[in-house]
Design a protein that fits this description.
By secondary structure, this protein is of the alpha+beta class. It contains 4 helices and 3 strands; from the N terminus they run H-H-E-E-H-E-H.
Length: 74
Amino acid sequence: MQILDLLKKMKLKLKTRSSAAKRYQKTKTGKIVRRKAFKGHILEKKSPTRKRNLRQKGLVSPGDLKPIYLMLPN
């Protein structure tokens, strides 16, 4: 990944954004995992199958990766 190489070359120490640390996790392979949306409230009208599928984690889309990598340097 070019972003990870860029972060390693930077001489400055980067702080982790605590807001991003609460929302995203890095896997061992370097992918970023997120929680799925639409699971917070108004759950009565959603079917059990839909709610069950929303429990699973999702991967961050490639277009959103760069800013998240910068927020999670470690």
